[in-house]
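Before relying on records like the one below, remember that each one covers exactly one chain. Contacts with other chains, cofactors or solvent are not represented anywhere in the record.
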Amino acid sequence: MTILFLLGCFLPLLSATVVLDFNHIERCKDSLYMGTPPRGFTDNNLKRICQRYSDRPRYVTLYDPQKRIPVYSAYTFKKTEGDRRVDYPWMFEPQLAETDGNGNMQPFPTGYLHMKFEDSQAVLDDYSDVVLYERGHLNPDQHQSTPHDRAATYTLTNVVPQIREFNIGPWRQYEERIRLRLNNFCRGVAYIVTGVTTRGNMIRRNNQDRVAIPEDVWSAYCCPDYDRNSPIIWMLTRTSRSSMITASPLHPLPLYLQHTI
């Protein structure tokens, strides 16, 4: 696959949150630098989600309903103290399975969830009996400030399986390092996109492949009005073979993705 990854220095509002093009949806494109999403993801089965919560777009996600994980989530960073909330309910995206409703993500019901939702996305049961992995955010609540923006990160369409020791160790340290850097040195809006690559490993439930396990997690950010010399950087971490995080300028990222997606 050829990846043309554009991250710059890096939708009229519809009721449905699964859209054909982020650029056609008012406010969702605001999560992307100059309204430009990463390009080159050509799989027609991928779904573009304008993540809506409480009737407002919050960020965007490119989602793979066959692997039941996000390919990436893109969002604007909000200055915050970095505290974590644990009382938000986990949610799902009804629009991946049906076009009815108001377009908002919804909390998982306490009882029966129709099979059509399980067919289109991950559900809580996919993570309930998994020992090695836990839910790892691509758009973390620590990078958001308002209660609604933070609550909107707690949807399974924004998380991937991560090894627990990695999620609470190197990856959390990375998220905190970026939070402090953008808090202190970004003078304007900062744009972040975080995604994954996979190699075929899956979480299984009831003898069926359910949720893809990432091979790598990559992240890039851009702050156009920045008082340091390196406003663009991309971070790559190996989630399967090691827990090492490496940082470099943005330009190697398209080549890396071209050979791994």
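Residues 170-185 form the longest helix (16 residues).
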